[in-house]
Predict the structure.
Amino acid sequence: MNYRSLGKTGWQVSEVSVGTWQLGGKWGEPFDHKVAVETVNRAIDLGINFIDTADVYRDGLSEQTVAEVVKSRSEEVYIATKCGRRLQPHTNEAYTPKALRGFVEDSLKNMKLETIDLIQLHCPPTEVYYRPEIFELFDQLKAEGKIRYLGVSVEKVEEALKAIEYPNVATVQIIYT
């Protein structure tokens, strides 16, 4: 496995990582905990040390399973999760520091963690990137020890360029279709 530096984190992560939508996504199949555990364990066996999940992947089951496996292993494995897509409606106005803080707290409980390695804004509306109070929240969460780093998952180049203007944005995940 090859490794490279991830953004501003200083972590050396596997060039191939695992996205876990399929572990908890709603693709018509029932959630199979055994298969999910086997999948994450096999990835780690192959040298993968970066796993991406989100609170919306089967309503937190993906987060729970990923954290369960990672905690059972001796290797250092970084978990990235995402927040914001649970907002209904998914609009700029719905993005508030209070709502996002609640999602971070929920993810901490789902994963039974004190600190999230990397929390990412999950493809918010473009206008959110122009609201400094949203990004300031994550400085507070970091100071409280609830997150190590903030990242963004974006759909547009404009969003990535605006996000990296905030000094606390450590990573950018670009949706590739």
